Amino acid sequence: MAMPPRRYSAPEPSGARLVDPPVVPGPGVGSIEALVDNNRLIRAALDVRIGDMRLWELVAATRREVLMVAAEYTGHYRHVDRPADVADWIARPIIMGGHQPELFHPGVWLKNAAIDAYTRQVGGTALNLVVDTDRCGRATAAVPVGTPESAHTEEVPFDSFTVEAAWEERPVIDAECFTSFGDRACRLLAPLVPRPILRPWWPLVVERAKASHRLGLGIAQARHMLEERFGMETLELPVSEMMRLPTVMVFVGWLLAHARQLHAAYNESLADYRRARRVRGQGRPMPDLAVRHDSAGEWIEVPWWMWSREDPRRRRVFANTSTPGILALSDMETLRIELPIGLDTSPSKWVDALSRMEEHAIRLRPRAIVTTLVSRLLVADVFVHGIGGAAYDTITDDVVRRLVGSDPPRHAVVSGTLRLPLAAAFPTLETDDPAAALLAARATLRDLRYHPERHLEPHASQPESVREQLAAKHRWIETHPTVTLARRRCQEIRAINERLAARLEGERLAAEAGMTGCAAAAKARTVLRSREVPWCFFPENEVKSFLLLENGAGPA
Questions:
Q1: 261/303 Cα distance (integer angstroms)
Q2: Average of pLDDT values for 414-423?
Q3: 62 and 379 in contact (C-beta within 8 Å)?
C-alpha cells in the first residue's frame, strides 16, 4: 500500500527554509543518502520492459545521454568539470530539480541550492531542468512600490507582448525594452531596495539572450552563471533538449503505445486525488483528459502539448488508436500526424518517427506530470520538488502504480521564504498588524449599528428622550418573539438602533475612515511582505546567505 503523502506548507518567517530530507541529517529525521539508497532499490525492483529493453537498461543509457548533453549544453556558457571515468560518473547519484526559466522568487531558487548541497553529501551530480516547454504567458515583472500605508505593485515589461508560446519558441521581440528593463525596474525599486542584484545582473541576461536567441534561456543561463559565482556546481539542461534524446524518445514511444492505459490511469488518479482531498470541481488541480469523436472515430487526450513552428500556440494532444500499429496524433485543429507506434512495433521506429516530427518543426512536449515521470523513472536518483510540485506529483505516483504496478522512486521537497529587507526603511512593518486593526474597525462599525447604546454618553448625562428609547429597546429585547410579535419586535429594535446611531455620526465617520486606512495598510503590508518577489530584486548578500545551505555560512 502506498504511503500517505505528507502535507507541506511554505514557512512563514523570512529566511526560513523547508528542506526534506535535511541536508545535514539530525536525530530522528531522514537523510539524502538514505533516500538515494531507497530509490535505487525501488527502481531496481520495477520489472518493466520498455520495448526490447528492461527498465534498468534504458535507465543506464538515458543517464549517459542526459549527463553528456547537459555537460555540453552547460559548457557553452560556464565552466564544467567532466569526470574522466564516464562509467563511474553515470553510476554516481544524480539529484535533479527543475523550474520554468522565469524570474521566480527565492524559495524556488532554493531548490537549485539544495540539489547542489545534496550532491555534495552523496558525491554525485546535480542537474537542474530548465522547463522551457512551459508557456511564456507574460513578459512582465511585478515591482513593489510605496509605503506601509499605501503600497502596490507595478507591472514592468521586459519584452513586448506576442502570441502565447512555449519558452523554447520565445525570442526577444523588443530589444530596447529588454535591454532597459533592469534600469527601469531598479528605479522603481530604489526607495525600497537601493542596490538590488538586478542592476549588475541584467546586462548578463541581455548578453546570454543574444547568444542563445531565446528569452528564457537568457534568463536561465545568466542565473546559472551567478550560481557558479556563489560556488554551486550544477549542470542544466532544457526539457526541450532532453525530449530530443533517443533514449527518452523510446520511453515516450512506450507511453504513447500505452495511450489508453495512460489516459485511464491519469483520470483515475485525478479522481482519487480529488476524493482524498475533498477537492470540488473537475478542473482542479488540473482537468481530466478528454475524449472526442469525429469521422475517424474516438480520440483520447494524452498528457502532452503539440504545436508547430508556424503556429507556436500550445495545443492539447489527442490520440487515435483505431489502426493497429499506427498511432494518430492531432490537436483537433490543424495538426494531424500518423506514427508507427504500437505495442508490436520496434522502438527504433518510435525514435525515427518522433525524430522526423522534430525535423519538420512539429513539437510534441510533455505536460508537467510526464516531465517528472520521465525524470524520476529514467534519470534521477532523487527529484527535488517545491511544495506545489510535491502535491501534484502524488498524482504522478499513482499514475506510475497503475501503469507498472509498483511505487515510483520518492522525491525530496524544498522551499523557503525570503522577504524584502525593509526593516531599516520601515522599522514597524513587522510589528504592526493593520489586518487586526481592520477587524477591530469593522467590529466597531457593527457595534455602532446594532449596539449604539454602548457608545453613548453616561446614563446620567443622557437626555430623557434617549433614556426612553433605551428603555423601549430593553423591553422589546425582553419580549418573547412569538409568531405574531416577531416581525414587529425586529422592526422596533431596528428603528430604535437607527435613531440612537444618528447621535453617533461622528464616531461612525471616524470608524469608517479608520477602516479605510487599515484596509490600505493591510494591503500594503501584504505587498511589501510578499514571498513572491523575484529573487533578483534582493541585495546580493541577502539572497546569497539564504541560498547557502551546506557550502557556505547559511544554516542547514
A1: 12
A2: 96
A3: yes
pLDDT level of residue 1 (50, 70, 90 thresholds): very low
When pLDDT is cut at 50, 70 and 90, the band that residue 64 belongs to is very high
Contacts of 137 (CB under 8 A, 6+ apart): 164
CA separation for the pair 112, 101 (Å, rounded): 13
> pLDDT (tens digit, 9 = 90+) per residue, 337-385?
999 999 999 999 999 999 999 999 999 999 999 999 999 999 999 999 9
**What number is the average pLDDT over the span 540-547?**
95
223-233: average pLDDT: 96
**Maximal CA-CA distance, the chain:** 99
358 falls within a domain? no
Q: Is residue 506 part of a domain?
A: yes
Q: Is residue 233 one of the residues assigned to a domain?
A: no
Contacts of 362 (CB under 8 A, 6+ apart): 306, 307, 308, 335, 337
Count: domains in the chain: 1
Range of the domain at 457: 434-528
Q: What are phi and psi of 305, to 5 degrees?
A: -115, 155
Q: Which among 203, 200, 196, 152 is positioned nearest to 178, based on CA atoms?
A: 203
Residue in 315, 308, 305, 313 with CA at minimum distance from that of residue 362: 308
Is-contact 396 369, C-beta < 8 A?
A: yes
With respect to residue 132, please indicate whether it lies within any of the assigned structural domains.
no
pTM over the 0.85 mark:
yes
Q: For residue 548, give the 3-state DSSP assignment.
A: coil
What DSSP string runs through 266-331?
Answer: HHHHHHHHHHHHT--STTSSSPPPPEEEETTEEEEEEEEEEEESSS---EEEEEE--STT-EEEE-
CA angle 97, 386, 532 (to 5 degrees): 115
